[in-house]
Amino acid sequence: MWSLPDIQRLNRERLETAKKLEYAVRTGVLDGKTLRCECGKNDKNCRGPLEHKLWYDIYSDSPRGIVTQCEFHRTRFGRPENFFLCRDCERWMTKTYIYALPFEIDEDGWPVCLRCAGERYVENEDNWIRLREEDICAVTFSSIQRARHVLDVCMPSPDASSPAARKIQLFDRVPLDNETFGLISGIGCQDPTPESAVEMIREILEEARHAKHDSALLIIDGVFQCAFTLGVYVWLVPAVPAAVDPKQQKKA
């Protein structure tokens, strides 16, 4: 059975290896072995100085690995096909790990990783829904269609690597069918029509309004083979420190 990787465990492991990878980029040596051109394994035409680049994924600020290219292959082939350069953070990002592409193409045709695309999306006030009765009633199927895939599984949390994910929190989410946009319950569609999804989103927005939130954001935060999850996000409310009893403070 296909299952999602344990992203939190992977992040802990990457933090432990980040310094080792950064040192290897400077020295050209990793685990006692000299780094060699990636293309040199199948092509013996390597020549020119080597260039070492750290590469990342959308789940962590820690580097995931190193890509090494000689001058000849770097000039001839450019960036390896499994990587892209994010326009905003200028990092080499991997295209693997998730079912959908981990980037968006911006208005100028450049790839922007989900982490940076999420930052753009969250900061754009036009994407937020005001939680007034009239605005909630105005939510339609078009509102769902405008939601963007700028977060992925395990990214939304206060300590997540994505800057956008550190500013917002999940209020509630619904699983929807990829083809019909109908609600999914158990192993099948609870209601195969988009109208059911609209009604459910309106109900969640109404609940968020009663919870004293003044605006909400629709985000596709998980894409799978036959379904996706549509999350309703609100601004992250910082935790309020518990009041300290003066008597206990004196004792301390």
3D structure, described in words:
The chain contains seven helices and 14 strands. The protein is α+β, with helices and mostly antiparallel strands. The strands form five sheets. A four-stranded mixed beta sheet has the order 4-3-6-5. A four-stranded antiparallel beta sheet has the order 9-13-14-10, with helices on one face. It has a two-stranded antiparallel sheet with strand order 1-2. It has two domains: 7-81, no CATH class; 119-235, no CATH class. The radius of gyration is 23 Å and the shape is elongated.
Lay out the secondary structure:
Layout: H1 7-27, E1 29-30, E2 33-34, E3 50-56, E4 65-70, H2 71-77, E5 83-85, E6 92-94, E7 103-105, E8 111-113, H3 114-123, E9 128-130, H4 133-137, H5 141-145, E10 168-177, E11 183-185, E12 188-191, H6 194-210, E13 215-223, E14 227-235, H7 246-251
Parallel strand pairs: 3-6
Antiparallel strand pairs: 1-2, 3-4, 5-6, 7-8, 9-13, 10-14, 11-12, 13-14
| Class from secondary-structure proportions | alpha+beta
Low confidence ranges: none
Instruction: Tell me the helix content.
Output: 25-40%
Alpha plus pi helix count: 7
Radius of gyration, in Å, reads 23 Å
Amino- and carboxy-terminal Cα gap:
54 Å
**Could you describe the largest sheet, including whether it forms a barrel?**
4 strands, mixed
Return the string of H and E elements: HEEEEHEEEEHEHHEEEHEEH
Mean of all residue-level pLDDT scores: 84
The number of E-state strands comes to: 14
- By oligomeric state, this entry counts as single chain
Shape: elongated
